[in-house]
């Protein structure tokens, strides 16, 4: 038996968008259930995101610490950002985020995993890349603002991140999924078994 998610779309009899924000919005759909009843579902409409687990030659992961107001925490995270342009190539977006947030570039890119962060209430899809062969980016550093102006950077051994995740000390979704996924890859078939950086992504189709 192969366990695999499958695309499916139930009938929507009515839809409205009661709130439109700067980057996301809220949609209300009336959805027909299998027994024929119609129920209302509210959810956040999100453009999608990319995240980068950047691993250096010493087995350390590049992480940053940033204030996240909705949860009132400073969280350790991996570089990440929105897919600001519809149809944007996720690899290009990930390379941009790694440069802007850490002033780092990478020569080797693979798809680590794809996730829906909160499928019960948001349609956000995230592609997490593994980036290796790191080096300092050329040129001037990107000028950060707002929460990013207070950001801290560090390089932490992968094993220490896994320890922190399992101890309940690290909570960022992309860091948790990325660190545990890479640990599984290294204990299994190895990095060469990962999908290429330009692998199709049905959740957020893109042009090469």
Polypeptide structure, described:
This is NUDIX domain-containing protein. InterPro entries: NUDIX_hydrolase-like_dom_sf, NUDIX_hydrolase_dom. With 208 residues, this protein is an alpha+beta fold. Helices cover 18% and strands 39% of the residues. A hairpin with a 4-residue loop joins strand 1 and strand 2.
Number of helices: 3
Main beta-sheet annotation: 5 strands, mixed
C-alpha termini separation = 33 Å
What does the average pLDDT come to?
94
Total number of beta strands: 11
Low-confidence stretches: none
The helicity comes to 10-25%
Biggest sheet, spatial arrangement of strands? 7-4-9-8-11
Derived structural class: alpha+beta
Overall geometry comes to globular
Could you give the order of the helices and strands? Answer: EEEEEEEHEEEHHE
Q: What is the CA-based Rg, rounded?
A: 19 Å
Beta-strand share of residues:
35-45%
Give the helix/strand layout.
Layout: E1 12-20, E2 25-32, E3 38-45, E4 49-54, E5 60-68, E6 73-77, E7 80-82, H1 90-102, E8 104-116, E9 125-136, E10 152-157, H2 158-166, H3 173-187, E11 195-196
Parallel strand pairs: 4-9
Antiparallel strand pairs: 1-2, 2-3, 4-7, 5-6, 5-10, 8-9, 8-11
Helix pairs in contact: 2-3
Features:
39% strand, 18% helix, five-stranded mixed β-sheet, 208 residues, globular, three-stranded antiparallel β-sheet
